[in-house]
């Protein structure tokens, strides 16, 4: 099959109605790349016999080796449909060719004839053509451009799924017919729902039901129905969430409106209104998948076939004397064919008869028959009969092949070609850019509005209407790193066959002309052969030197979607960063000149001069302006709108420290890390305070890919990698505290002994966790009480971390310097901040009231969240007066008692908060962040020794010294108060999903138990031999887990690990056996290992902290070495 000329693809970009932007989404190993291969073969990019084996879009070596996709890959495909229409209607059909795609099936043009669908202009006819004779008809061709993005299914690369779905208007969601709906299937469906991407369901690997599970057509039909129910249940969950959220918003607005009336009447009206309140009924039929709607494809990508019930409806409509539209609705479901009346009946019409559903009788039986005679029970005679009955033309040499799979693929490629079925469904079911943006853009521009307002700005109208004549608005979803020698300007141009023939004709004409000149005796120019050879050798040397110069160098290209306008090479555009705020239009905004434009064709790039609205493309010239993603905006328009959305990718949890093996190559490592940070949307690159270069990745596979990129592409040096650094959290519980044998607080106690007393000590009279602290210069004394946060309140702080972060950041940007003021009671300027503050207070008030008397009403006294001002730890003002530095205290008593000379209590507010932030960012166990701790500031006073501070520079110097010592004392007081409780480490946990057979179930359990995991849930998937296991596994024990479990089960089980949460390890790291019972059970050696202490010591050792470790422990025997 010939490949499609580049000019054809570029021409189709301008016809929005015939452009489709789609992505392929699925769980890992459900057949995405194999399906892509079949679609690529339809365009002649690869051989149809290699489809499913070459994995063309997996261009990386490690992708081919592992057999999984790691990076999103894009390619543009050409698809032509030829419609058979009556001669009288050719003109009308031609007029409609430039209009929007009709919503009906392209096969519904007449009762007697059906569509001839052609891929890449080859004339491959649909199997419906075999239904009988038809009247003479002519065809009208429609050409489409399909921009396809193949996305990864592995959970470590879910960030790539977010980038793919943001660029597309439709999606092919694949589900394995055997494994059914898996964890990543939920994730990709949610991502498609969030981005308003219309999905088409592809149930793939149906061949496994026949060859592996050996299902009958009836068993397969029941099994496929269950898969449909599972997928529809997931979609129904999303819909109900939206309905309930919208209903809650309406209810809150009504309640606020009713309360505004006030008085007794308002209260009575409120009760009457909500006494019979019910959720409004909404139509949800459009969100579900059903074969009769044409949005379900049954396929086997490895065998190259797929079908929708529409195709069989077109075949059997005339034979059964039914309208095709009616039969299409009956071909899947409880509908049966009465053998006597030849009529379709429902379930009630069976009257006890054992009839097959139409889906089995007319569809599945035929597919099963082909597999039976070709693969399951090979029979050449029956195969020839089947081929003849289907009116297929299979070459004798193909029929004689001993490879039954090759024969099967040959038959199905003519009878039910996969590419034709899938691309036809894409054209019919998925919207064009112009139609999709009318739905997607209002939600993207106004995500929090139930009913988006009418567009008023020119840029908003241009985006919603996908107007190519408007200003440019585009979204860069990620930066892709490509070798310089792949760019079109650096590639040697490959001549087509026609160009080579033309060149040959010109050369022959020149030779003939030269011969004629020689015969006529004309004097020509003398050519020196040696000079010609020397010139050729010089040119080859120059080309080789240029290629060597480009080798190993990378360029960054923006993977983008244009929503409005037409972008051209050389055009000036504004780049809006992810943090761009229209209120501050000069920040996070820069201008760039478009250096180059590309059509992305998998591993190759095609240079473009311009790209109109509605297309996916690559753009050069953004390096240094776009880090990972951003918005491109027309330079003529003022302001801008940030289009960067928040995906569902997993948070990076695994980190490693990197350094070059040769220290002189540090600059290359830094440059390589910069390129990696831009080219990978899921990785984070940090430089720690110690100077270490650290990368954070989503998992072990992601880490291995990043290291391969650094060593082979970006840095191109040998890199030394530390052991994976897994984060922990520190918390405390209300249990008897052990004697702290560690020297975590030894420094503070040593300072106190040097000065004759403990400056930071436990309060003798206060409650548990109360610490009295005095600064080293004895200027400031304060009392802090440490208390674990109740579970409900802690859960709220963790679940609403993003909401709290947004509020605190907005407040810090707009509020004046007001250290020491309560976070939730400080006056705010904007209405949005006031709403956010009221919402937080309303939600926190009942939680604080439930926590006990000490907590009741304290939500208004929160001074700070920590660490980094947004974490799940609280600093609460329990002084009884305002602690704000820039406010006048209303209490004269507090002003008099808490100010001596030049230093006041309010001057220490910022230092107290800073000490709290430092303490919560690094706890006393192993300097990991705290989680779920509250610190009540009960007392603070300025001691008499600090009355005469002095003025001028001396006063400022003493003030600075006091402030610094308050920070240190507050940090140590918080840590010592933490140790007064029973400390615990919190482990990062993976949620582990495994599908395996019963034979290796015990081995799977053994591997999980050995790595300190625990089983949460286990069930057998009905109708399959597979068990689905859900477990929790500590991240620190997960390295090598996937390889280990595959080795133990001989590849029968493969886990999916997703970061879930932090879980308390219920073991005191300072525990040692000391009671009589413990000593009797364990002995003085404590044979049972203290896992918490082991983890704590490993982290302390890595960070260079003191580790209490005995070189010789429990020595009983001395070993004497005899000298030789």
Task: Characterise this structure.
Pfam families: EFG_C, EFG_III, EFL1, GTP_EFTU. One of its GO terms (biological process) is cytosolic ribosome assembly. This is Elongation factor-like 1. InterPro entries: EFG_II, EFG_III/V, EFG_V-like, EFL1, P-loop_NTPase, Ribosomal_Su5_D2-typ_SF, Ribsml_uS5_D2-typ_fold_subgr, Small_GTP-bd. The protein is of the alpha+beta class. It is 38% helix and 21% strand. It has 33 helices and 37 strands. The strands form eight sheets. An eight-stranded mixed sheet has the order 3-2-4-1-5-6-7-8. It has an eight-stranded antiparallel sheet with strand order 15-14-20-11-12-19-16-17. Strand 26 and strand 27 form a beta hairpin. The N and C termini lie far apart (82 Å). About 7% of the residues have low confidence.
Strand pairing plus helix content: what structural class?
A: alpha+beta
Radius of gyration over all CA atoms, rounded:
36 Å
The span between the termini is: 82 Å
Low-confidence stretches: 86-136, 741-757, 886-901
Helix content: 25-40%
Query: How do the strands of the widest beta sheet line up side by side?
Result: 3-2-4-1-5-6-7-8
Mean pLDDT: 79
Number of strands: 37
Strand content: 15-25%
Please describe the biggest sheet, giving its number of strands, its sense, and whether it closes into a barrel: 8 strands, mixed
Give the overall silhouette: globular
Q: Specify the number of helices.
A: 33
Please supply descriptive tags for the structure shown above.
33 helices; GTPase activity; GTP binding; Elongation factor-like 1; 21% strand; eight-stranded mixed beta sheet; 1124 residues; alpha+beta; 38% helix; eight-stranded antiparallel beta sheet; EFG_II
């Amino acid at each position: 099959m010939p490949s499609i000329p580049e000019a054809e693809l570029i021409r189709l970009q301008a016809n929005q109605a015939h452009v489709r932007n789609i992505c392929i989404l699925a769980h890992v190993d459900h057949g995405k790349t194999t399906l892509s291969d079949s679609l690529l073969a339809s365009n002649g990019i690869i051989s149809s016999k290699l489809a499913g084996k070459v994995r063309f879009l997996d261009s990386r070596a490690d992708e081919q080796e592992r057999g999984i996709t790691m990076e999103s890959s894009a390619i543009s495909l050409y698809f032509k449909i030829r419609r058979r229409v009556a001669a009288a209607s050719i003109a009308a059909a031609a007029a409609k060719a430039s209009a929007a795609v009709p919503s009906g099936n392209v096969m519904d043009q007449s009762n007697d004839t059906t569509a001839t669908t052609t891929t890449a202009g080859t004339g491959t006819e649909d199997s419906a053509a075999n239904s009988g004779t038809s009247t003479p008809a002519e065809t009208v061709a429609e050409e489409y451009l399909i921009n396809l993005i193949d996305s990864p299914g592995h959970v470590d690369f879910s960030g790539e799924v977010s980038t793919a779905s943001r660029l597309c208007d439709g999606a092919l969601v694949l589900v394995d017919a055997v494994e059914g709906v898996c964890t990543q299937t939920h994730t990709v469906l949610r991502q498609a729902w969030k981005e308003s991407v219309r999905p088409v369901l592809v149930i793939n690997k149906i061949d496994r039901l026949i060859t592996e599970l050996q299902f009958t057509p009836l068993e397969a039909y029941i099994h496929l129905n269950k898969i449909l129910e599972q997928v529809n249940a997931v979609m129904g969950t999303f819909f109900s969430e939206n309905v309930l959220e919208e209903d809650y918003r309406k209810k809150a607005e009504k309640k606020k409106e009713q309360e505004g009336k006030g008085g007794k009447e308002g209260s009575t009206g409120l009760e009457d209104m909500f006494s019979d309140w019910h959720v409004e009924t909404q139509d949800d039929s459009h969100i579900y998948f059903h074969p009769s709607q044409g949005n379900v494809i049954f396929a086997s990508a490895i065998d190259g076939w797929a079908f929708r019930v529409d195709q069989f409806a077109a075949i059997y409509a005339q034979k059964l004397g039914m309208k095709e539209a009616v039969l299409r609705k009956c071909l899947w479901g409880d509908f049966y064919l009465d053998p006597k009346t030849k009529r379709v009946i429902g379930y009630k019409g069976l009257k006890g008869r054992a009839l097959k559903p139409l889906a089995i009788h007319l569809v599945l039986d035929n597919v099963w028959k082909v597999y039976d005679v070709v693969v399951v029970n090979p029979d050449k005679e029956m195969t020839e009969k089947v081929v003849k009955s289907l009116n297929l033309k299979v070459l004798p040499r193909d029929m004689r092949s001993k490879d039954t799979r090759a024969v099967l693929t040959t038959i199905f490629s003519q009878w039910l070609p996969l590419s034709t079925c899938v691309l036809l469904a894409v054209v019919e079911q998925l919207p064009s850019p112009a139609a999709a943006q009318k739905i997607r853009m209002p939600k993207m521009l106004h995500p929090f509005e139930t009913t988006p307002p009418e567009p008023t700005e020119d840029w908003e109208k241009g985006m919603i209407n996908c107007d190519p004549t408007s200003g440019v608005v585009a979204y860069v979803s990620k930066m892709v790193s490509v070798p310089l020698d792949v760019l079109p300007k650096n590639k040697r141009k490959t001549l087509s066959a026609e160009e080579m023939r033309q060149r040959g004709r010109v050369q022959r004409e020149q030779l003939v002309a030269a011969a004629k000149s020689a015969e006529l005796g004309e004097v020509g120019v003398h050519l020196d052969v040696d000079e010609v050879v020397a010139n050729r050798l010089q040119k080859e040397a120059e080309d080789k030197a240029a290629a060597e110069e480009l080798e190993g160098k990378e360029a960054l290209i923006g993977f983008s979607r244009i929503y409005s306008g037409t972008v051209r090479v050389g055009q000036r555009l504004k780049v809006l960063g992810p943090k761009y705020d229209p209120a501050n239009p000069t920040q996070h905004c820069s201008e760039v000149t478009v250096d180059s434009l590309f059509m992305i064709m998998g591993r190759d790039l095609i240079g473009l001069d311009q790209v109109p609205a509605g297309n996916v493309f690559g753009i050069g010239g953004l390096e240094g302006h776009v880090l990972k993603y951003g918005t491109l905006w027309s330079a003529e328009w003022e302001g801008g709108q940030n289009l960067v959305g928040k995906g569902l990718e997993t948070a990076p949890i695994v980190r490693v420290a990197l350094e070059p093996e040769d220290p002189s190559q540090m600059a290359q490592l830094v440059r390589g890390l910069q390129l990696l940070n831009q080219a990978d949307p899921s990785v984070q690159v940090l430089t720690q305070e110690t100077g270490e270069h650290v990368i954070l990745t989503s998992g072990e596979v992601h880490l291995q890919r990043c290291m391969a990129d650094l060593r082979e592409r970006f840095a191109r040096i040998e890199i030394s990698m530390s052991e994976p650094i897994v984060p922990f959290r520190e918390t405390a519980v209300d249990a008897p505290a052990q004697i702290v044998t560690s020297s975590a607080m030894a420094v503070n106690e040593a300072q106190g002994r040097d000065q004759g007393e403990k400056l930071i000590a436990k309060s003798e009279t206060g409650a548990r966790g109360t610490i009295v602290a005095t600064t080293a210069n004895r200027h400031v004394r304060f009392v802090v009480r440490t208390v674990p946060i109740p579970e409900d309140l802690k859960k709220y702080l963790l679940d609403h971390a993003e909401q709290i972060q947004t509020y605190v950041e907005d407040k810090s940007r707009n509020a004046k310097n007001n250290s020491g003021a309560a976070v939730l009671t400080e006056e705010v300027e904007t209405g949005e901040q006031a709403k956010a503050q009221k919402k937080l207070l309303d939600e926190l008030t009942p939680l604080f009231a439930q926590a006990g008397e000490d907590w009741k009403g304290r939500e208004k006294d929160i001074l700070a969240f920590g660490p980094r001002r947004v974490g799940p730890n609280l600093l609460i003002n329990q002084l009884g007066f305002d602690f704000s530095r820039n406010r006048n205290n209303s209490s004269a008593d507090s002003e008099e008692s808490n100010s001596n000379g030049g230093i006041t209590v309010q001057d220490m507010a910022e230092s107290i908060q800073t000490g709290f932030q430092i303490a919560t960012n690094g706890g006393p166990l192993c300097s990991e962040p705290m989680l779920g701790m509250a610190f009540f500031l009960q007392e603070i006073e300025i001691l008499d020794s600090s009355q005469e501070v002095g003025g001028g520079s001396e006063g400022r110097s003493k003030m600075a010294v006091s402030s610094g010592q308050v920070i240190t004392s507050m940090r140590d007081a918080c840590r010592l108060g933490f140790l007064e409780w029973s400390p615990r480490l919190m482990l990062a946990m993976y949620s582990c999903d495994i599908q395996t057979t019963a034979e290796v179930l015990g081995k799977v359990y053994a591997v999980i138990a050995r790595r300190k995991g625990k089983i949460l849930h286990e069930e057998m998937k009905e109708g399959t031999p597979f068990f689905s296991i859900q477990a929790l596994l500590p991240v620190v024990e997960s390295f090598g887990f996937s390889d280990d479990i595959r080795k133990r089960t001989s590849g029968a089980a493969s886990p999916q690990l997703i970061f879930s949460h932090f879980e308390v390890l219920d073991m005191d790291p300072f525990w040692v056996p000391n009671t009589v019972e413990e000593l009797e059970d364990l002995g003085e050696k404590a044979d049972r290992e203290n896992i918490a202490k082991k983890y704590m010591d490993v982290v302390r050792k890595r960070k260079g902290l003191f580790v209490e470790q005995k070189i010789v422990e429990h020595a009983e025997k001395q070993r004497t070495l005899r000298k030789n």
